[in-house]
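Hey, quick one: can you model this chain's 3D structure?
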Amino acid sequence: MRILSVEVEQYKGVAGPLTLTFAAGLNVIYGPNEIGKSTLLAAIWDALTLTARGETARHRAIKPHGDGRPRVKVVFVRGGVTYTVEKLFAGAAASKSALRVSSPKDGVVELAGTEAEERLRGVLGVGETARSGELKPEDQGVWPLVRVMQGESGRSPNEDVKTEAARASLGERLASMSGAVLGGEGAEELLQKVRTEYLRHYTEGGQLVKRADAPMVKATSAAAAAKAERDRLRDQLKEHDAAVDRHARLEQDLDRLRREQPRLDERHRAAQSEVMRIQKLKDGLGELDARRGQVEAEAQLLASTQRQREALLAESAEAESAAPALTQRHAQAQEDVARAEARLPPQRAEVQSRRVAFERAGRLCRRLRAHRETLDAAEAQRVDQERLRRALAAKEQRVASEAEQRALRPDDAGLSRLEALQADALKHTSRLEGAAATLVLTALRPFTLIDERGERTMSAGESATIHAVEPETITVGDVVALGLRPGGADLHKLREAAHDAKHTLRAALQAEGHKTIEEAREAAQRRREIEARLTEAQAKLREIAPKGLPALEEELNQRDAAARRAQQARDACSEPGDPPLPERSELGARLNEAEQHERDAQLALDEVRDALVREEANLKGLLTDATQSAKASAEASARVERLRLQLAAHRAEHGVDSALSAKLEQKLSAEQRAVAEHQKLVRALAELHPRAG
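Sure thing. Here's the predicted structure for all 693 residues.
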């Protein structure tokens, strides 16, 4: 097998389309890491082994990073036949598999879908497990020798040919593929050399040989030592490069500082002198700020005190003027409450009388409705019981048909198997009869014919046809003896095959309980008729009980429970002295009359109840107003007394109104003088050094 070309598009990280053509002999694909070498090999492998349609983890892994549908096309030659495989991996709906076979003998054959994938597996010699792209060991054939998966190059080779049987099978495959060069005795010698070399590195169990002089141990130790030395030198080189860079930067900084040193010294001395002058001004400004802050705080405190005094005076005047009105409002609210309370008792008695009449009418309606539900439940019970009876009869018919069907054999599959065995027996019998020898003798003169069937005399012109199925000798008079050997060397095999076919047919008929194929056909026909009756019974049962017989029985139980509940509800609504319940013919009119009476009683009850609710709401509002007016009157009196006490305490602490105003004017004048002096000092500091302000 040789791969001629491959096309890859939208596969993992390969956007493509990418087309590669391979030459005869060795082809090498090289490049840096993560460029797509392994992706290309994986695409070829998936095109040859993975089904196009599927949602496995491997199918999801081959999807491109963006939107797109993976497509791979591989052209290869095997046994002089060219195969073109093209697969589109696009999920369950749009996936496609195509195989084009070009043969000098058969021409061009194109296959698609499942047929194409099965033909491809047959060409490659892999099993059914190739559908998912991962081959089980028993289905791999020689593939592990021609393809090594990335990351598995260090795996023990003994895992693929551990047993003698596996090595023998490998030898046979190599011989069939490459002739005696790699198969037969040459293969055994080659495998023995490989095994000798293998045991230098691995044990029989596939483990690495761990002796100190073992090649793999030496190589591993040397590699580890070399890697450690390489890492150590690499770290030293990084540290040296970093030290060189730091030294160069420090030399540059030192040269720049040396050149700027005289100018920086001069600027430093001038700055020190200016800083001293600025600091003196700032000290004076800080003292002034402290004095101004103290004056401002005292002025704000006096202003706040003045505002408190004014607010207390205004609030006290307002409270004294509002108190008489609140007292008068409270007296009026108490009179309104007394008048509203006198109107409530008659209205409550009327509501109670209307409620009793409404409840009596409602009880009559509930009693009549419960009576109607009782009658309806009884009728539903009767209907459901009839349905249950018919369903049970249909079920018994179905059970009887199923028992009769189980007793009849064969079914359609068994009959097809018997007819196939009969056709096979007839085929072998026909082959046996076709292999017999036929000899036609025509007498030219009278003679005696002797064979295994006996002796007879033939007259001139008489003909005889001899059909021989067994070797025999025929004597024609005393002139010649003819030996017939019908069928040649295959006659015995044909006879055994015909005997075995007839025996197999008889055994199959006996297993089904019949002597002839006609009896089996008749039994199968009766079985089909019973199946038709079963279908009819099942349809009838579904018509009677769509949800099944248990559901019908459960429905009947629910009907019984509903009937009992209706009876209990009717009894609960009945009292001694109630009139007898009407018949069904009169029930509708009686119920309509009772419901109309209930509605009239409801309207009358709602009317008097609404009037009572309005009166109670009015009383509640009056009580709320009386309570609020009493509370407001008490709060107003308490507020007036509290404000008088606060105003007296404020005057005792801060003096009378005229003394507090004079003190505030004095502090405001002092604050203005401090602000003017502060602004003057700030201007002087800004003129001395602009950035200092």
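One thing worth noting: The chain is about 65% helix and 10% strand.
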